[in-house]
Amino acid sequence: MKQKLLEKILQAVGAPPIPIALWNGEVLFAEPSSAPGRVAIRDRMALLRLLVHPDLEYGRLYAAGRLDVEGDLVACLEALYRSVSQRRRRALIHPALARLRRLYQHGRSRSRDNVYHHYDIGNDFYRLWLDRQLVYTCAYFPDSATSLEDAQIAKMDHVCRKLRLQPGEEVVEAGCGWGALALHMAKHYGVRVKAYNLSHEQIAYARQWAQDQGLGDRVTFIEGDYREISGSYDVFVSVGMLEHVGLHHYRAFGRLIDACLKDTGRGLIHSIGRNVPEPFNPWVERYIFPGAYPPTLGEMTRVFDAGGLSILDVENLRLHYARTLEHWLSRYESVFDRAVQMYDLPFARAWRLYLAGSTAAFRTGYLQLFQVSFARADNNEIPWTRDYLYRD
Amino acid sequence: MKQKLLEKILQAVGAPPIPIALWNGEVLFAEPSSAPGRVAIRDRMALLRLLVHPDLEYGRLYAAGRLDVEGDLVACLEALYRSVSQRRRRALIHPALARLRRLYQHGRSRSRDNVYHHYDIGNDFYRLWLDRQLVYTCAYFPDSATSLEDAQIAKMDHVCRKLRLQPGEEVVEAGCGWGALALHMAKHYGVRVKAYNLSHEQIAYARQWAQDQGLGDRVTFIEGDYREISGSYDVFVSVGMLEHVGLHHYRAFGRLIDACLKDTGRGLIHSIGRNVPEPFNPWVERYIFPGAYPPTLGEMTRVFDAGGLSILDVENLRLHYARTLEHWLSRYESVFDRAVQMYDLPFARAWRLYLAGSTAAFRTGYLQLFQVSFARADNNEIPWTRDYLYRD
Description:
The structure is a homodimer of 392-residue chains. Chain A has 392 residues and is an alpha/beta fold.
C-alpha cells in the first residue's frame, strides 16, 4: 500500500497524532511533531486488524507484541484520548448511539464470572504492585506529594469522615475487595461491619487478615453477591463495586439500600464514571473488566431515586485516580519481569497497557471518579456544612 | 354529611395528620394528637373544593381566608409534607407518571411572562422582607446562628471561592436578580461581569446600584434572555435561574455554556431541585412561580452532558434554604400589615403560605438545593481537593 493512502485511511479511522513506524522502515505521520513517542507496528496483518477495529485490536496487538509504543506510553495514550475526544465533540455523537452499545446482561451467575475474571487472577499478582493493604480503588492524596500508602489510608479516612461513623454503629459494605476499608472502619472508628464480596480468594484473605488483627468479632466477611445483603444498618458503603452492578439493576440496588438502611441511615457510593453514557473501551471491557460499566452521574441517580434517598454531596476525584494509577504503573514497571515469570509476556503487557491507558483516561477527563454521599430524604441529621471534613 | 364519612373521604384524598375544624363547630380527626395546630375550614363549598383538588385549592382557599391554619403554620405544613411523602413511598409512584405532568412550553415570549409575574410585583415588596442586598436565593449559613445579612454575603463568597475568581477575569452571569452577586464579584474579587436578566425593574435597580458603588465600568447589566448571551468568558455562573429554563431547553443551555466558555473556563449552577422528577406544587406553579420546574440532579446533568462539561462538585444545601426561608417568613410576618396595605389581604396571605410551605418543603426533604461546580471535561486546572474552600 502506498504511504499516502495508508495515512488517509488511518486518518479516517482516527489515527493518533503521533508517528507510526511500520515493519518495513516506513514512518507515517512523520512530519516534525511534538509527539511524546511513536507507535511501532510489527507486521502487515497487525496494521490491517488495527484498521478494522482499532478500539479492540490496539490492546490485543499490544499484548501480543505486534504493536508497540516507543517513548512515553502514558503520554502517547493521552494524545490518543485527546484526539478522540476532540473528534467526538466535533461529531456530536448522540447519546442514543451510546445507549445502543450497552445492552448488557447481568444475571447473578454472570456477575460471579465477571468478578472472578478480574479479581481472582491471584492475590500474589496484586500484591506485586498495590499498596500494603491491597486497596484496588482510587486513593485520596491530601496533597499531590503524598505516598500511595498514605493516600490509601487518607482515602479510607475521607470516606469514614464523610460517613460520620460513630462507635458501635452497624455498617454494611457492598464489594469489600481484600477487606482494607472494613477493617479500617472497625479498628479506627469502632464500628461493626458486615462486608460482602463474590471473590473467594479475596474473602479468604480478608478473613485471615481480620483474625491476624484481632478484629474477627467485629468484622464479618461474607462470600456473596451484594443482592444477598440483609439486616438493618446505620451506614451503607460501597467503594468500586457499582461498576459491576449493571445499569439495569440500579433501581433494584437502590431499593436494596432502602431496605437495609435505618431511618437515620446514610451512605456513600464511590464509582468510576463518565460525563456522557458510553461503555468502557472494548478491549478493557473484553479482557480486563468483563461486564463492567462506568455510569454517568445522571445514571447513578437511579440508585438514589429508587431508594428514596437524597444526594448530599458529590466529589469528582478524577485527578486522584490518575495519580493513583501513576503509582500503580510505576510499581508495576519495577516488577514487570516477575509478572512475566508468574504469567506470561502477553498477560504482563496487557496489564501494563491497562494501567497506562487508565492513567491517560483519567488525565484527559475521559473517565471520572464520583464519590456520592447520601442519606434518607427526610433525615435532617445531616452535616450543616462540609467544613468538618477539612478541620483537623 | 356525616362526620365519619367526611373523615373517610379526607383520608382517601390524603388528609393531613392534624385536626380539621369545620364551619359548624365539628372537628374531624380530633383524637388526642401531638399535632402542631389545626386546619379551620370556613364554609361547606371550601371543603368540597378541597376534596376535588387539594393540591391546588388549599392555596387558593388559604389566600381567600376560607381555609386557615390555627397554630404553627410551618409545622402543620411539615406534617402535611411528611404524610404525603410517606404515602408516596408506599405507593411507589412511577417516574413516568410524574413525567406526564410536566409537558411545559418554554417559548421565549412565555419565559418573559413567567419572570414578570414573579419578579416584577415591584421591588418595594421584596425590599420589605429580603436582606439589604435583595438576594432572593438560598443563603449559606457557616453556622446556624449566622444572621440572614451575613449568610447572603457568605453564600456569595462561597460561590466566588468555588469559582476561584481571579482579578481581571471575565464572568457572565445568567439570571442576576437585583445584581448583588455581580456587584459582589466585581467589588471583592476584581472581575468584570456581564449579567443578564429579563426583569426590567430588577435591571433598572441593579444599574442604579452599580452607579452608586462606582462599579458601572466593571459590571454590565443586560435586560435580556440568557439565550442572548454572547462573547467568551473565564467563568459562567447562574444562581436560581435554572428553575426557569425548562427541561426541554437544558441541552441547548449546555451548548450555550460550551459556546461562551474559554478552554480553561469553569462555572457554577445553583438551583432548587428534587430527588425524583415532579413539578412544583400546582398552586405554587400556578400562582407564584408560573412555568418554573425544580430539576433532579439527573435532569441537571443534561446541561453538562450537552456542554462537554465535567461535574466537579455537588453540594446539597437543602437545610440552608429551610433556614433562609425561616428568616424571610419571620421578616415577612413583621411587615404583613404593610403587605396588605400595598396589595390586598389575599395577596399577602398567598405569600405567607408560599414562604411557610417552602420552608416545610426544604425541611422535609421534599425540595433540594443543588450547587453544582463544573469545568470543561479536559481542563486539568481544577482544584486538587476542596480543602481551600474551608481554609481561612
